[in-house]
Design brief:
alpha+beta; Aminopeptidase; 2 domains; four-stranded antiparallel sheet; 18 strands
């Protein structure tokens, strides 16, 4: 493995510049204006995999954005790893808060700064370069397949069908994913659980047009006011979601599980300081780590209606809107939760307004057993490069396709990510530490070696 490490060191500047080429492509899946950029990014990554040494690399169509598929079969009897990642990124709004242009990557203070630097272009590209390093040094001990998609940030809506149609193509022993974070640089971790997701959009309509707030104020229901009250009622003073049946399937942790969960290092003062808040809040009776890792939640992701431009315009708006996400835990079903939400939200509405609920997308929670051979291989790899055995960690985030892989392909995923809280994914000024990028490449190479040994 010394030759792999040497190859990474000798080519690290090129690796970085090639990552910059990927980061310059504004592959924002949520915005239809970037449809051509999605295809351009997929074709670029396909070329990168072909140059890295893949025997087969192609851009494959779906009902939505294309998938990049590539493979290298070193031996038919060798174990096979399917690498999953996504090349789509979040919108950059608010653009005014970016310190550098989001699609003009730079390195500042040892960090790559650009949209997608971490999530997930930076982390996915580590796999491309680890793959290249092992092929160039003739040390790849297992078969490797790549599946890079362009819809993760919008729920992977087309991917489930595509996976079902290509089960043989995706046949593998494990799926390896780098789209998660470490507890900290000094305390490495491997994500062994993800929350599920149910994402909805609601629309409240009052009068059939905007009205003068002086002539009609006090006599006509204001949809923004009504929507605000409806949303406020979705959680109670104890921080619990009020939707009937919301907690019916929630799997409660045992006392010993909660004790083990509490062993992960966490400094509440540092947590509050890192995001600029005076105090934390959430469901009573649970720690912050439990609230974000193993308890469900409900949050408004956006709310709008009426006049929001510069200056004043005195109107009662005709409509008000909100986007709401619910993070779910085992054994909650996002489809059932979506139905329960819609029924409850409509029931909250007074007769003075009309309500429409649209369930946009969702995904199931996921748990990876820590006794899985691939998990053990990942743990050894992280310990090798970080010098410390990683802790198992339950993340509050969601990757909808991971549960789909388990249901459609019957294969477990190992979530070996290298991000950090300070990377500001989904926010302005996203970044990724150079040290994480290079160490991640080396760790992935070690995973292949250990996994081949486990199998």
């Amino acid at each position: 493995m010394e030759q792999v490490k040497k190859y990474i060191e000798e080519n690290k500047d090129r690796f970085l510049e090639e990552l910059f080429d990927v980061l310059r492509i504004p592959s924002v899946s949520a915005e239809s204006s970037h449809a051509d950029d999605m295809v351009r990014c997929a074709e670029h990554l396909c070329g990168a995999l072909r140059d890295a040494g893949a025997d087969r690399a192609e851009v494959m169509p779906t009902a939505g954005n294309p998938i990049v598929y590539a493979e290298k079969i070193v031996r038919p009897d060798a174990p096979t790893v399917l690498v999953y990642g996504h090349y789509d990124v979040m919108p950059v709004d608010p653009l005014s808060e970016w310190e550098t242009p989001p699609f003009e990557p730079v390195v500042r203070d040892g960090r790559i700064r650009a949209r997608g630097a971490n999530d997930d272009k930076g982390q996915s590209f580590m796999h491309v370069k680890a793959f290249e390093a092992m092929l160039r040094t003739d040390t790849l001990p297992c078969n490797v397949k790549f599946m890079l998609e362009g819809e993760e940030e919008i729920g992977s809506g087309s991917i489930s069908t595509w996976c079902g149609e290509h089960k043989e193509l995706l046949r593998s022993d494990v799926i390896l994913v780098s789209d998660t974070s470490l507890l900290s640089w000094k305390v490495p971790s491997i994500t062994c659980g993800l929350r599920g997701l149910c994402y909805v959009e609601v629309e409240v309509t009052g009068p059939d047009k905007d009205l003068h707030s002086g002539l009609y104020g006090g006599a006509v229901a204001n949809p923004v006011n009504v929507l605000s009250k409806m949303i406020a009622s979705l959680t109670d003073e104890a921080g619990r979601v009020t939707i009937p049946g919301f907690y019916d399937r929630v799997r409660e942790l045992s006392a010993s599980e909660r004790e083990d969960f509490g062993k992960a290092p966490f400094c509440e003062a540092a947590y509050k300081k890192s995001i600029g808040i005076a105090e934390v809040q959430g469901e009573q009776g649970y720690s912050t780590m439990e609230r974000t890792g193993v308890r469900p939640s409900l949050d408004v992701n956006g709310i709008w209606g009426g006049y929001t431009g510069e200056g004043a315009k005195t109107v009662i708006p005709s409509k008000a809107f909100a986007k709401i996400s619910m993070r779910l835990v085992p054994d909650q079903d996002y489809r059932e939760i979506g139905e329960r939400f819609a029924s409850h939200f409509r029931a909250l509405a007074p007769r003075s307004v009309r309500v429409e609920v649209r369930v946009l997308h969702g995904g199931y929670p996921y748990v990876c057993p820590t006794d899985l051979p691939a998990y053990r291989a990942a743990s050894k790899a992280v310990e090798k490069t970080f010098g410390r055995k990683p802790l198992p960690y339950y993340s509050g985030g969601s990757i909808p396709i991971i549960s789909t892989f388990e249901k459609q392909l019957g294969v477990k995923s190992v979530l070996m990510g290298f991000g950090l809280d300070e990377d500001a994914i989904h926010s302005p000024n996203e970044s990724y530490a150079l040290e994480n990028f290079y160490r991640g490449i080396e760790t992935i190479a070690w995973f292949y070696r250990y996994f081949a040994g486990e199998k």
